[in-house]
Design goal:
The chain is mainly β and 287 residues long. The chain folds into two domains: 72 residues, no CATH class; 206 residues, Protocatechuate 3,4-Dioxygenase, subunit A. The chain is 5% helix and 35% strand. It contains two helices and 14 strands. Strands 1-2-3-4-5 form a five-stranded antiparallel β-sheet, with no helix packed on it. Strands 6, 7, 10, 13 and 14 form a five-stranded mixed β-sheet that branches. It has a four-stranded antiparallel β-sheet with strand order 9-8-11-12, with no helix packed on it. Strand 13 and strand 14 form a beta hairpin. The radius of gyration is 25 Å and the shape is elongated. The chain starts with a strand and ends with a strand.
């Protein structure tokens, strides 16, 4: 049995199919004669980027009168358009904050996907996509993306005299660099960030073109924001409960970075607190 598409254009969410049975040869081959009989129709409807429904109806042949629906789920890589949507806008520039630790930019060991080291927390995969808004939002490959954030208790690596007198001098946890692939993507495995007094939950992000990591040459310094409903669930979980909810900054309007809005800096979150989350964000720059 063979299916041929009878109508599909870019942007459609449904593919319409005609079902055939072929005998005495190879279907659609000019080299052999074949008897082709139409036996039914089908549609493939994409209900989301991760799933589709295959609906079939046989009007002839050995399966005549049979019909039904089959739910299909994606097992391979998800297309970038599904993960990131169609956003094509400049991401705002933000402060690099008090804990950038630029001294590690030349450390080859920091070029890593997994940045957790020994830190525990709810697993978080960060998927970033770098695009050029001056070139039809084409992906930018071979760019270095540097991210850093605090642990579940609000502590950064590499600095002394943090809240409560904590010192992490010499540590590099929750910092890492990845080079974007041909799709402009960089992926990090980390934990959901905690919070510290005066700031709402965030991750710091910098991009360096052509994989040139030199302090002061980043083409963008920005921050990723997180939906507050997700953050509250995480902070109520066992690993985060001791530090608790952030009572110092309870809204984006009160935050000194995101008070002007989070439209282009808000992560898209999927997952749950038990198995972990995936956070995606498009980094639009004018290159």
């Amino acid at each position: 049995m063979t299916a041929q598409s009878t109508g599909y254009v870019a942007g459609d969410h449904t593919i319409r199919l005609t079902l055939y049975v072929g005998t005495n040869g190879t279907f659609n081959s000019a080299a052999t004669q074949i008897t082709v009989t139409e036996v039914g129709t089908a549609t493939l409807t994409y209900s989301s980027c991760g799933s589709a429904v295959f609906s079939y109806n046989f009007s002839a042949g050995e399966f005549a009168g049979k019909s039904g629906d089959i739910l299909l789920t994606r097992t391979g890589a998800t297309p970038a358009a599904c993960v990131f949507g169609s956003s094509c806008a400049l991401i705002p520039s933000e402060t690099d904050g008090p804990y950038p630790l630029y001294s590690i930019l030349s450390n080859s060991a920091i070029q890593r996907r997994d940045i957790t080291e020994s830190k525990t927390g709810v697993p978080l995969r960060v998927v970033l996509r770098l695009i050029n808004v001056n070139n039809s939002c084409a992906p930018i490959s071979n760019a270095a993306i540097y991210i850093w954030h605090c642990d579940k208790d609000g502590v950064y690596s590499g600095y002394t005299n943090q809240t409560g007198g904590v010192s992490t001098f010499g540590d590099t946890f929750l910092r890492g660099i990845q080079v974007t692939d041909t799709s402009g993507q960089a992926v990090f495995e980390t934990i959901y960030p905690g919070w510290y007094t005066g700031r709402i939950t965030h991750i710091h992000i910098q991009a360096y073109l052509n994989d040139v990591l030199t302090q002061g040459t980043a083409v963008i310094t920005t921050q990723m924001a997180f939906p507050q409903d997700v953050t509250k669930v995480v902070y109520n979980s066992t690993l985060y409960a001791a530090h608790g909810q952030n009572t110092s900054v309870t809204s984006f309007a009160q935050d000194n970075v995101f008070s002007d809005g989070t439209t282009y800096e808000m992560a898209t979150i999927a997952g749950d607190v038990a198995s972990g989350y995936v956070a995606t964000l498009t980094l639009g720059i004018a290159a």
